[in-house]
Structure to design on (638 residues):
């Protein structure tokens, strides 16, 4: 709202296909490889009129008929991406303490181009949902970092979702505040508002479907650009009034979009600008810290498994909050009886592999011992960081549609994914065809319980113990 | 005090029977009797407008001016008394809390300072955030190193291929 002309220029660029920037496809800078999602992305980058070719926010300007083709909205200053933080060295001898702004806060020293371009130096992402949704948000963070070099990204997520960010190198602060809480405590609400205001964000992204209430929350953070999803139904009425850019998902549940749930946001963020082609969407990548690695190695040795010689089994039926399932897939946990059969197949394979059950709650210890067997190995892990580390050291992963599947693919580990239906599999693993290491077994009846155990057993047979040199490389 | 009748000349003698004559007369006396009538200036302030007058006593002595004594009374209402004592009690409590906490040896102790305490209430969370942020920075650095190593490795392979 503060800079309406600015947001006009930004939003209208969305509507333009890449063809208005002549020769842009040829000038594509060597992008981060997009091998997880080549097909769909390539089509978009090629200038096809995408979902983002719409009018800009009609709440802010009801007479907006889209961009004027002949007008140069961006002017002479705004070519190219922003520079990384143009911070002159501090002068310790200066008696006035001149130029001692904290990094990324450069009000006086910023160039005019920065203003015109709409540089984003500090961004905040309000991510709704649990572990799965937050893991899938990683490409957005990477895209932000690529599109706006030098940006500082903070995240506001629920307590469960925050744990994911120990694997993310692109984030500065991760704050706990549950945006899905319909009745937050007033103290918490105002505190979070204060925190967000104090950090003077340039852009705030929200993945919670906003009605007027959430839109106001974003608005009150005083960020320059407030960008977020709004309800596609009547609940979204008026929310756009407080946002500079809004996206409407096809359904009221964003997680129904599966792996591409943040598609609209990604397209808008990576929109071409003057001298900047459409930003390719990066694949999902997670990193593992040394500390985490040490912790998980210790846990593994106590569980009695050897590095590279075990298969991670994830997706035991449980009512624990730590089961890491997606909101878009209700039927994604398999009862232990069926896991027991799969585990038997793994351990009888003859190549020295052992199944390692990941239990989300201590109460499953006895169940596992009763149903699967006393000598089976299990490990109690609730945080996604430790799970990733475990998967990284494993020979492979057998999992239902939990975050483990995405994490395994993010670390390029062989993976057998059990889905309740073909449709869900296509939504949540759209890149499975390109990846040789990922096998999908889908139930034909639409219920995960009826899954064809023989097919799973066949898929599991292909697992090979990870050679030691390969592990040494990672 | 002597200036009060100058400002409000009539209040000085408002209790006297002839208010209308007395007022200007006083001012006049003060002006004309510059040397001799210093007593005219020594009128007391008379806060009749504020508090209710209870009694006025006039004593006559020969060859002197009349002695005029007025008595008034000022009562606090029950509510006012209650407010006063409430304020007094709250101020006392605040004072005990505030001044009592000013010198707490705990906050100067090593135990508190060495963990990062700086006297604010929020230091614990700030430190936690900074720890997390620095851990992520570390992660970024490790990743960059890995990438660089990969690239260097690739370059070396290329070079070797070129030599062969």
């Amino acid at each position: 709202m503060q800079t309406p002309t600015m947001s006009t220029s930004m939003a209208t660029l969305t509507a333009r296909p890449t063809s208005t920037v002549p020769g842009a496809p040829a000038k594509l800078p060597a992008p981060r490889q997009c091998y997880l999602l080549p097909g769909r992305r390539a089509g978009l980058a090629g200038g096809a009129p995408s979902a983002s070719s719409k009018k800009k926010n009609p709440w802010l300007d009801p007479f907006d008929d889209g961009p004027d083709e002949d007008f140069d909205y961006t002017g002479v200053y705004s070519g190219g991406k922003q520079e990384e933080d143009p911070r002159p060295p501090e002068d310790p001898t200066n008696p006035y303490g001149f130029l001692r702004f904290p990094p990324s806060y450069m009000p006086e020293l910023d160039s005019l181009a920065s203003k015109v371009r709409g540089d984003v130096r500090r961004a905040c992402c309000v991510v709704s949902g649990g572990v799965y949704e937050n893991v899938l948000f990683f490409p957005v963070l990477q895209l932000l970092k690529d599109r706006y070099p030098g940006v500082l990204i903070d995240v506001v997520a629920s307590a469960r979702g925050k744990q994911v960010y120990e694997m993310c190198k692109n984030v500065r602060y991760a704050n706990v505040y549950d945006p899905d809480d319909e009745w937050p405590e007033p103290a918490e609400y105002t505190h979070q508002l204060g925190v967000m205001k104090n950090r003077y964000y340039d852009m705030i992204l929200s993945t919670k479907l906003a009605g007027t209430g959430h839109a106001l929350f974003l608005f009150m953070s005083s960020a320059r650009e407030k960008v977020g999803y709004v309800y596609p139904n009547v609940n979204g009425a008026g929310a756009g009034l407080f946002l500079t850019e809004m996206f409407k998902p096809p359904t009221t549940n964003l997680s129904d979009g599966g792996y591409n749930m943040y598609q609209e946001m990604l397209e808008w963020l990576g929109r071409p600008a003057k001298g900047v082609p459409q930003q390719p969407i990066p694949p999902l990548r997670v990193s593992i810290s040394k500390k985490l690695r040490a912790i998980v190695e210790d846990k593994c040795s106590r569980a009695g498994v050897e590095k590279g010689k075990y298969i991670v089994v994830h997706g035991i039926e449980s009512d624990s909050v730590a089961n890491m399932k997606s909101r878009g897939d209700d039927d994604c946990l398999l009862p232990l009886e069926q896991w027991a059969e799969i585990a038997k197949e793994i351990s009888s394979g003859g190549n020295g592999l052992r199944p390692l059950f990941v239990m989300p709650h201590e109460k499953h210890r006895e169940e596992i011992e009763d149903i699967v067997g006393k000598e089976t190995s299990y490990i109690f892990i609730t945080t996604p960081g430790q799970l990733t580390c475990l998967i990284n050291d494993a020979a492979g992963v057998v999992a239902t549609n939990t975050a483990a599947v995405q994490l395994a693919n993010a670390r390029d580990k062989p993976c057998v994914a059990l889905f309740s239906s073909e449709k869900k599999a296509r939504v949540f693993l759209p890149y499975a065809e390109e990846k040789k290491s990922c096998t999908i077994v889908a139930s034909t009846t639409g219920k995960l319980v009826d899954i064809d155990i023989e097919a799973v057993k066949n898929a599991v047979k292909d697992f090979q113990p990870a050679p030691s040199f390969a592990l040494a490389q990672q | 005090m002597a200036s009060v009748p100058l400002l409000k000349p009539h209040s000085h003698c408002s209790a006297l029977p002839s208010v209308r004559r007395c007022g200007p007369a006083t001012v006049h006396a003060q002006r004309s009797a510059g040397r001799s009538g210093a007593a005219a200036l020594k009128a007391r302030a008379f806060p009749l407008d504020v508090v209710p007058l209870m009694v006025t006593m006039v004593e006559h002595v020969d060859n002197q001016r009349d002695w005029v004594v007025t008595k008034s009374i000022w009562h606090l209402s029950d509510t006012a008394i209650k407010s006063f004592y409430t304020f007094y009690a709250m101020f006392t409590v605040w004072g005990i809390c505030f001044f009592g906490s000013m010198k707490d040896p705990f906050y100067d102790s090593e135990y508190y300072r060495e963990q990062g305490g700086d006297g604010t209430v929020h230091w614990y969370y700030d430190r936690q955030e900074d720890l997390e942020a620095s851990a992520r920075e570390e992660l970024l650095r490790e990743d960059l190193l890995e990438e660089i190593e990969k690239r260097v490795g690739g370059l070396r392979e290329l070079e070797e291929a070129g030599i062969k």
Q: What stands out?
A: The CA atoms of residues 396 and 414 of chain A lie 5 Å apart. Confidence is low (pLDDT under 50) at residues 1-53, 469-474 of chain A. Chain A has two domains: 112-269, 290-473.
